[in-house]
Amino acid sequence: QVQVVESGGGLVQTGGSLRLSCTASGLSLVDYTIYWFRQAPGTEREGVSCIRSRGGVRYYGDSVIGRFTISRDNGKNTVYPQMNSLKPEDTAMYYCDATWAAVGRCTAAVNGFGSGYRGQGTQVTVSS
């Protein structure tokens, strides 16, 4: 059974940092394009970042460039978005989607949300 789980969210003050995790069982994330996106109540989903399979190529949304980074630890089958210099407007539920690499496109537009395996999300709240 395939399961994708996000974790690491919480309450943090403005300017603080959080490291989220997206881990999977039943599949190897290295073969998947990973999308991170977020959604706050009453708002549209927003692409935060994506990282291609086996790699290296990654992109970030305009609102997070210079503050967020994303990386893979293939040995732990986990992807880590690192969020620094957090702002109240970063408050949202954050989701991870793992889409098979042949299908999932990760481009500089960061406007995809994937169509694969997705977790339940992890809440990030940034206080002012």
Write the layout of secondary structure elements.
Elements: E1 3-7, E2 10-13, E3 18-19, E4 21-25, E5 32-39, E6 46-51, E7 58-60, E8 68-73, E9 78-83, E10 92-100, E11 117-118, E12 122-127
Parallel strand pairs: 2-12
Antiparallel strand pairs: 1-4, 3-9, 4-9, 5-6, 5-10, 6-7, 8-9, 10-11, 10-12
Quick summary of this structure?
The chain is 0% helix and 48% strand.
Radius of gyration: 13 Å
How would you characterize the largest beta sheet? 7 strands, mixed
| Tally of helical segments | 0
Please give the number of β-strands. Answer: 12
Low-confidence stretches: none
* Overall mean confidence score, pLDDT: 95
Task: Categorize the overall geometry.
Answer: globular
Structural class by SSE content: mainly beta
Strand content: over 45%
What fraction, in percent, of the residue positions are helical? Answer: under 10%
Order of helices and strands: EEEEEEEEEEEE
Descriptive report:
The chain contains no helices and twelve strands. The chain has 128 residues and is mainly beta. Strands 2, 5, 6, 7, 10, 11 and 12 form a seven-stranded mixed β-sheet that branches. Strands 1, 3, 4, 8 and 9 form a five-stranded antiparallel β-sheet that branches. Strand 8 (68-73) and strand 9 form a beta hairpin. The protein starts with a strand and ends with a strand. The model has no long low-confidence stretch (mean pLDDT 95).
